[in-house]
Design brief:
2 domains, three-stranded antiparallel beta sheet, about 50% helix
């Protein structure tokens, strides 16, 4: 298998000298499948996390001269909070 052959490489010249390193159709399909799964998994996990808890939008202000400050939530999910 190609992964086993790549693990045996210690330095770049080993790769240049290795003539019997063959990539088979099965190796390409395995690497493609692994890449596809690694790209899709975070998207699926993100959708589940978003559905479980709506995002809270928060704002914070600080008046430089008087030192007054305000911090509060103004939106939860897609709903704005009333005044």
């Amino acid at each position: 298998m190609i992964l086993d052959a790549l693990k045996s490489i210690q330095k770049p010249t080993d790769l240049a000298e290795k003539k019997d390193l063959k990539v088979t159709r099965r190796d390409v399909l395995q690497m493609g499948t692994a890449g596809l799964v690694s790209m899709v998994t975070p998207l699926l996990a993100g959708k589940t996390a978003q559905a479980a808890s709506p995002k809270m939008w928060q704002v914070s202000f600080r008046q430089a001269h008087t030192g007054e400050s305000f911090s509060g939530v103004y939106r939860v999910g897609d709903q704005y909070l009333p005044d």
